[in-house]
Design a protein that fits this description.
The protein is of the alpha/beta class. The chain folds into 3 domains: about 190 residues, Glycosyl hydrolase domain, family 39 (Immunoglobulin-like), CATH 2.60.40.1500; about 180 residues, TIM Barrel; about 80 residues, Immunoglobulins (Immunoglobulin-like), CATH 2.60.40.10. It is built from 12 helices and 30 strands. β11, α7 and β12 form a beta-alpha-beta unit. α4 packs parallel to α6, α6 packs across α7 and α11 packs antiparallel against α12. Keywords: Glycosidase, Hydrolase, Signal.
């Protein structure tokens, strides 16, 4: 008997035609997946485009971590996910980057370090998840003192207004300002924060932001919010926002723009969703006026403890889980606006791959001077596949047979329509299939038949497939085969980087009759994306923002941006980097990285776009000259 797993109330588009058997004593799972791109189901919100991290103790020295060369590299990798696949970095203790000096009883604030971090995020096309937390040179000590509450409001206003004036309201109004992280854990450093003090603090944050601009977004409580009467800070804040008295205005009720929760999985994916549903239901029953508020789970990690080494965090197992956690919310009645994995930390020896991070960090101390190398893990690569999904979810259906269960295989199917005809953008469809048994691997593979239909209305279609599994895209496994060296050689680093990419097949012509059937073997774990593109009228736009980050002698990280380029960049097969020590006559792999660089995009039809601005890089990776 098969298991039907639907994505809408529509009728089943096909019936199961084959029998799954047992091969060599191992149960074989079969899945038929049908997709009809002409049947729209709902808007597809990309609510997973967020990550985060926390600087280590002592928090008063957060600048040494947040502004380090390692973090500069890390944020460059985070921002390398194309098409805004990661947009927000939620960072603890941001206000510890602000220092205060009291002059004649009045605090004078120095925002230099915070300015540098905000500039770094902005330069990388990212924005902060701005938790308003920190003691500011230990100036703030007790939020039951009226003077300190008023001064906190002033500090929040000064910070918000500062960045509005520097970057514009359009940018800052996209930030998610949030309360102190997990107040029920009492991690307030030297600040006395009673429940009443926390409510006073909340009002000061709210009014300070409103003073800067009423369009700024503020929410909380940024907590697990266990069932009442547990998590007293959480429930006190929600009650206060519902019908409490505003510390400053005396009005009843305080604005709450979104509900921020932290629900983790204990090693699994479904428990995250189950906890979210339970808590949101309790909140909405106690406070009916909050039913329309967007819900964030901005620490939706499969397992608590970022530094706890787990082998599954190193490979495609983690990547497939992240996709699965997002897909499970596709049919939820909860108004999800953000689902964040708190995984932008920097790993450390000897757990370079196995901590909850997007990259594997190698602190290479056998060079002069020592340097740092980062490698993309599959969990970062898969964010790029998620970014290829369109803005409309379309009909999909799964029929399972054999040993498969109804949560092992899932699909997200989507379409994208170009808002501006005649450009390098075009009609597209992306179908993302995962095979995941949470943090487990399975020796047998799933036999999957993927049937795509509804494409007859489009012309000049091609498709390309992107594929990840633990055999083809597993730099951790390759590193282990090298003997897990602390300091891989330059050649080994290159081999490891190559395995960080998905396997790519195509572009191939899409059948003219408008239907396509693919038969694939998906082990557990695995992720497959099928990307279908109509030929756009124009060639790719010019790449912009070319810059460099020096890594070590003979190595430079070349960074560019697609953020201001039309969405036609979705249908790109490659971005070509040209280098020459003198002029652009040839491409070289010379270890001398000093010279001229330029980048251009090439689409699925082999058509190149215009080269970027030419930049001359110096020995330290600093641009010396533009043309």
């Amino acid at each position: 008997m098969g298991i039907l797993k639907g994505r809408s109330a529509a009728v089943v588009l096909f019936s199961l035609l084959r029998l799954c058997a047992t091969v060599s004593g191992t149960a074989v799972a079969c899945a038929d997946i049908a997709v009809d791109v002409q049947t729209a189901v709902r808007p597809l919100r990309h609510f997973w485009r967020s990550t985060g991290f926390c600087p280590p103790l002592p928090h008063t020295q957060a600048d040494q971590y947040d502004l380090s060369r390692d973090e500069q590299l890390n944020l460059a990798y985070v921002s390398s996910v194309p098409h805004g696949g990661l947009e927000q970095v939620r960072i603890h203790w941001l206000l510890e980057l602000v220092t205060a000096q009291v002059v004649e009883g009045v605090p004078r604030y120095n925002f230099t370090n915070l300015d540098q971090l905000i500039e770094l995020l902005w330069q990388n096309g990212l924005r902060p998840g701005f938790e308003l937390m920190g003691s500011v040179s230990n100036y703030f000590t007790d939020f039951e003192e009226k003077q300190q509450v008023a001064e906190w409001r002033n500090l929040v206003y000064l910070a918000a207004r500062r960045y509005i004036e520097k970057y514009g309201l359009d940018y800052v109004s996209q930030w998610n300002f949030e309360t102190w992280n997990e107040p029920n854990n009492h991690d307030f450093d030297n600040i006395t924060m009673s429940i009443q003090g926390f409510l006073n603090y909340y009002d000061a944050c709210s009014e300070g932001l409103r003073d800067a601009s009423p369009t700024l977004r503020f929410g909380g409580p940024g907590d697990s919010c266990h069932s009442y009467p547990h998590s007293p800070y959480c429930w006190a804040l929600l009650e206060h926002c519902h019908n409490g008295t505003n510390f400053f205005t005396g009005e009843t009720g305080v604005r709450l723009d979104y509900i921020a929760l932290h629900k983790k999985g204990g090693g699994g994916s479904l428990p995250i969703l189950q906890q979210e549903v339970e808590t949101v239901k309790e909140i909405q029953e106690r406070f009916p006026s909050f039913r329309s508020l967007p819900v964030y789970n901005d620490e939706a990690d499969p397992l608590v403890g970022w530094s706890k080494p787990q082998d599954w965090r190193a490979d495609v197992t983690y990547a497939a889980m992240v996709v699965k956690v997002g897909e499970q919310r596709g049919n939820s009645t909860i108004h999800y606006a953000l689902l964040s994995n708190d995984n932008a930390f920097l790993s450390y020896h000897p757990n370079q791959f196995t901590q909850r991070t997007l990259t594997a960090r190698f602190q290479v101390n056998n060079t002069q001077p020592p340097h740092v190398q980062l490698l993309r893990k599959p969990v970062l690569t898969v964010m790029g596949l998620l970014a290829l999904l369109g803005e409309t979810q379309v009909f999909s259906y799964i029929v399972l047979e054999g040993s498969a269960t109804d949560d092992t295989i899932g699909v997200l199917a989507s379409t994208h329509k170009s808002p501006v005809p005649g450009t390098s953008d075009s009609w597209q469809s992306a179908i993302l299939v995962y095979s995941s048994k949470d943090n487990h691997t399975v020796p047998s593979a799933n036999h999957v038949t993927l049937q795509l239909s509804g494409f007859s209305g489009q012309k000049d279609l091609v498709y390309i497939t992107y594929y990840l599994d633990n055999n083809s895209s597993n730099p951790y496994q390759l590193w282990q085969s090298f003997g897990s060296p602390d300091y891989p050689t330059a050649k080994q680093f290159q081999q490891l980087r190559n395995l960080g990419e998905p396997q790519v097949r195509g572009p191939l012509p899409f059948p003219s009759e408008g239907t396509l059937t693919l038969k694939v073997e998906l082990p557990v774990p695995a992720v497959l994306l099928v990307h279908v593109c109509a030929r756009p009228k124009a060639t790719p736009e010019q790449v912009n923002g070319l810059r460099f980050i020096a890594v070590t002698k003979g190595q430079v990280l070349v960074v560019w941006s697609d953020r201001s380029v039309l969405l036609g960049l979705f249908c790109l097969v490659v971005l070509e980097i040209s280098f020459s020590p003198h002029t652009f006559v040839f491409f070289t792999e010379n270890l001398d990285v000093c010279g001229f660089y330029r980048v251009r995009a090439v689409d699925y039809w082999g058509r190149p776009g215009e080269y970027s601005q030419t930049v001359l890089s110096g020995p330290s990776g600093v641009p010396l000259w533009f043309r």
